[in-house]
Design a protein that fits this description.
With 253 residues, the protein is of the alpha/beta class. It contains 11 helices and 6 strands. It has a 6-stranded parallel sheet with strand order 3-2-1-4-5-6, with helices on both faces. Strand 4, helix 4 and strand 5 form a beta-alpha-beta unit.
């Protein structure tokens, strides 16, 4: 019998806690599909006593992300802390240097340090996986990196931010203002309390930098991407675009 994949998770916020929960709930299904069980054996977060609705009994607690990354009992280090620098960067590098596989949803980190981390993974025989950093459940990273490896990609573009797309769609269909749609998106949990990262275009810029770097085999710096958000868009702009046969969307191009 193949031993289960032993996973260590750094970060138990909304995403991290849900990953622990899903692995627990879908353990049999994952084992059947992957040919190997998956088990969370250790975690770490800023607070050990915070209530998360998780049963962490039987799961080890590392004192910090770096300690978890260096834990010899885990096979895969999952980074879900966020942030473009520390402690995520050092923890991922440590995990890769020890030959572990790494999974991260951290688009800010990958956009800034992706090439550096990819070189570390190649050097030490680990794997750097960041599918969740762009496109959520849409496997666009794997498609570009593996499925289209033998294809010349001429350009990359698309709608890369769900929050902005939701707001613009509501504005277009219902004639509401940006402020009204943003407030509704926040109420529904589609937008953060501080939505500037999304609505000002920075989230899209980071995702575009990642996709373009993969597609064209070079490092695209986030600060080289022209950024413009949607906060200045008014219903009148959408109506004018419609009269000309167009629709207003925030695109990464």
């Amino acid at each position: 019998m193949v031993a289960p994949l032993k996973v260590g998770i750094a970060g138990l916020g909304t995403v991290g806690a849900e990953v622990v929960r899903l692995i627990e709930q879908q353990g049999r299904q994952l084992s059947a599909r992957c040919g190997r069980g998956v088990r969370v054996v250790a975690v770490t977060a800023r607070s050990k006593v915070k209530k998360r609705g998780l049963d962490l009994r039987g799961i080890g607690w590392a004192k910090n992300p770096l300690a978890l990354a260096n834990d010899p009992t885990i096979d895969c280090f999952v980074e879900l802390m966020g942030g473009s620098g520390e402690p995520a960067l050092s923890a991922i590098e440590a995990a890769l240097k020890s030959g572990k596989s790494v999974v991260t949803a951290n688009k800010a980190l990958i956009a800034r340090h992706g090439l550096r981390l990819a070189k570390a993974a190649e050097k030490h025989g680990g794997a750097l996986n960041f599918e969740a950093a762009v496109g959520a459940a849409i496997p666009v990273v794997k498609t570009l990196r593996d499925g289209l490896a033998g294809t010349d990609v001429n350009r990359v573009y698309g709608i890369l931010n769900g929050t902005c797309n939701y707001i613009l769609t509501r504005m277009e269909q219902e004639g509401l203002s940006f402020a009204e749609c943003l407030k509704d998106a926040q109420r529904r949990g589609y937008a953060e309390a501080n939505p500037s990262f999304d609505v000002d275009g920075h989230d899209t810029a980071q995702k575009l930098a990642i996709l373009a770097s993969i597609a064209f085999g070079t490092k695209i710096a986030q600060n080289s991407v022209y950024v413009e958000g949607i906060s200045s868009i008014a219903p009148e702009d959408l109506r004018a675009a419609e009269q000309l046969g167009y629709r207003v969307k925030l695109l990464g191009v």
